[in-house]
Amino acid sequence: MQVIHYSVLKHEILTHLVPLSNEGLVVDCTLGEGGHTEALLSLYPGIRVAGIDRDHEILNRAEQRLEPFSDRFIPLHGWFDDILSDFPPELPRPDAVLMDLGISMYHYGASQRGFSFTTEEQLDMRLDTSQQLSARDIVNTYSQQDLADVIYQYGEERYSRRIASAICRERSSTPVETARTLRDIVYHAVPQGYRRGRIHPATRTFQALRIEVNSELTRLRRGMAAAVDLLAQKGRIGIISFHSLEDRVVKHHFRLLAGRAPGDDKDVEYYQDHPALRLITRKPIVPGAREVEENQASRSAKLRVAEKVGEVNHEL
Ligand SMILES: C[S@@+](CC[C@H](N)C(=O)[O-])C[C@H]1O[C@@H](n2cnc3c(N)ncnc32)[C@H](O)[C@@H]1O
């Protein structure tokens, strides 16, 4: 099998997510093509890794790649927040949990689900292809206001209203079906100066649709809470994010559970006295110049790591 994805911050993950024992369990919540899992299984010959992915196709690819480790690799198909909340009872508490958020280069390059705006592919963007809602539905059925809100909230796109208005104008005559059509609508909706920016003007709109289709931020919040609950004491959680919305959610959650969030509400006060996490990285770890040179897609990656030192309070 030809591997398409280039695993980000692999060395840093191996340095910070060290299993507590030789027979420990690590949960890779975002298995993808299994690059991080392969590195962990190779470095620690006694551990097991449970690898979760919602996407059936990519999970199959990872299983092929990890065939040499089949006695120590446990594939789990589903959303990570669901699996972490209802973890298989036969498995022990994990020593480490990894999340490498977002989608894989396989999704951009080979899934044919319209993740990349350079293609004529149908606008789909579902990780779970049995789910009803696709990007095509959002673009063609959401009200103009709701569309603008999604693009603004999840894309942090300042021209969200103009873009939503242009989409609605177009779809009143012809449904918006493909990634390239949407890209062109966005391109023509924004001011000329914006078209020459650092990123393509459609980047934020595509990010917003992907987050909405797959409920990414809701699943991240729910998944992080369940992961900290599940971890063994002294176990570590490491999360790699790729945009500021994700990183803000991770940073806030880690700081809250570490009792380092400012404020005076009862959650903050509780964790100031009874921290559930200790921050290992005060500032996020980012890829070095060499990694960015080898893999441009890694340039926005940020890794935050924390260690479990207490319990999550479910009464709050
Ligand atoms: C960036 S890729 C992971 C790459 C992997 N770490 C590697 O090195 O090969 C993220 C993967 O997580 C999956 N994914 C994203 N969000 C998920 C969720 N909430 N539950 C389960 N899988 C998810 C995607 O389908 C994708 O395959």
Radius of gyration: 20 Å
Give the overall shape. Answer: globular
Could you give me the name of the CATH homologous superfamily of the largest domain?
A: Vaccinia Virus protein VP39
Compute the separation of the termini in Å: 47 Å
The proportion of residues in beta strands is: 5-15%
Number of strands: 7
CATH fold topology of the largest domain: Rossmann fold
Counted by DSSP, the helix tally is: 15
Q: What's the story with the biggest beta sheet?
A: 7 strands, mixed
Stretches where pLDDT falls below 50 for ≥5 residues?
Answer: none
CATH class of the largest domain: Alpha Beta
Order of helices and strands: HEHEHEHEHHHHHHHHEHHEHE
**Mean pLDDT across every amino acid position:** 96
Give the class from helix and strand content and strand pairing. alpha/beta
Bound small molecules, deduplicated: S-adenosylmethionine
Count of domain modules: 2
Helix content: 40-55%
Read across the widest sheet, the strand sequence of neighbours is 3-2-1-4-5-7-6
CATH architecture of the largest domain: 3-Layer(aba) Sandwich
